[in-house]
User: What shape does this take?
Amino acid sequence: MGQLVEGHPLDQLRAVVEEIGPDEVILLTEPHATEKFFHRDWASRARHEVGVPVLKLYAHSDEQKTDENS
Assistant: This one.
């Protein structure tokens, strides 16, 4: 299930979890080392907000892969 939302996305995520009652939430996001280190990344924040396990997957574009291999 995917959705574009207005307002704070964690508020919407919490509402969807309450409505659907999933066993787990999967977040797809770009890597951001600083936010992850301070536990301010989406997964860390969502774990405290939604009450179900949160799996974080990192998205990489073909352009990023090319840049990393250079």
Remarks:
- The radius of gyration is 14 Å.
- The CA atoms of residues 21 and 52 lie 9 Å apart.
- Strands lie at 25-29, 54-58.
